[in-house]
Amino acid sequence: MSTLQMVPVNEPDRQYYFIDKARTYVRQLGEALGRTPRACITTFGCQMNSKDSEKLLGVLEEIGYEESSEEMADLVIFNTCTVRENANTRVYGRLGRLKPVKKKNPHMMIGLCGCMMQEELVVNKLKDSYRFVDLIFGTHNVYKLAELLVMRFESKDMIIDIWEDTDKIVEDLPTERKYPFKSGVNIMFGCNNFCTYCIVPYVRGRERSRRPEAILSEIKRLASEGVVEIMLLGQNVNSYGRGLPEEITFAKLLEQIAAIPGIQRIRFMTSHPKDLSDELIEVMAREEKICNHLHLPVQAGSSRVLKKMNRIYTKEGYLTLVKKLREKIPDISLTTDIIVGFPGETEEDFLETLAVVKEVRYDSAFTFLYSKRSNTPAATMTDQVPEDIAKERFDRLLKEVQEIAHERTQRFTGQVLDVLVEEVNQHDPQYLTGRLSNNLLVHFPGSEDLIGQIVPVKLSECKGFYYLGEKLEQGE
Ligand code: 5AD
Ligand code: SF4
User: Fold this and answer.
1) What pTM value is reported for the model?
2) Closest Cα to atom 5 of ligand 2
3) Where is the TRAM domain (predicted)?
């Protein structure tokens, strides 16, 4: 029988076959080096990419690599983002710096994956000017890492494997969690919304939801391993379930997840205002485990600009939604994304954005200068806003957002709230750092053994965007 016939066709069996095979090559590399081969994955961009990197690291550890810093690594992978122009520039810069390192260490391998690789222009540029890259793959075939590495070990050529789109979801591959007590869980992939500024639908493909039983059994397993907080991930979680054979909505999925023993906190992102249902608001209000926080990107405050962005809702619709949320969940923390300088944005439009910010009073907001992404509809709009005007508006917006966030953050001073302890404080080892249900950071004195636990902390001093506190002792 030829080896080809022995390669399983179905996933995940096929990848387990290649994981085995890759292990042999990594072992041989280790023998040649006289030590365990080391790998480093650098992640750019959003939580989706972080999750993908955990999957990549899971496979790398399974085949015998040990995680290390970039300087020490025999395999360096950049998991890239392409949402804004400067994200691409940073990757080229980092790659340029790796070239001399690889010259000195000929066994070294460099891999590139993620959203930026889904752009044809990028891959062409890499083929022409960055020949020292070993492996290029995209967002749809992250699960194939072992197979692609085997291909690279068996040939001296650059391996390029980019798919335009997929309807495939491969379950049950190894993954390496960054934290033992919290974890991201993909519930859907891709996006169908085509906001006119956004490259995501082109690089992450069409929306597809994971089957509820796959999600639930993953979360049950995580809970049995000690995970207490999960973050459900999708570009547009509110439309979860569309296209699945079973009758399920995001709200129903949340209820089923909340019933899993051991899971104490549930977060999710990102919510599109156009699909945020009353059913979801009810479930959020009812289920204790769902965190008191909603990230609800507004993007712009002018209905005219929202229409040009293809956001589907109006300013009034968004504000009504916020009102409804605050009525049902009075103390909810709201955060948002805002783009400044979208093509055609006038001073009046911008003032409407500022007015929305003042009315909603966000607990925090990510503000972005509009960045032209080629191949998106907005890139060819003829009324691009001059950079100096956009920058000036951006600074005004940032000032407003920060002032409001400071004021909002203070409202918890003196209260005792539950904190999930995440790590030893990075500046002072006597302190721990954790998060409130609403995502605010809290630093307080305490010992390492509390990491992963939810403890009551008195929020004594507000420091703008975070709190200093003291842990309550039993009986206090
Ligand atoms: N320019 C600026 N910001 C953008 N975002 C997405 N595309 C662009 C772009 N072309 C922002 C949106 C989105 C967040 C993740 O990134 O606000 O919600
Ligand atoms: Fe981009 Fe809009 Fe989809 Fe978000 S919802 S990923 S902004 S297209």
Assistant:
1) 0.93
2) 193
3) 410-473
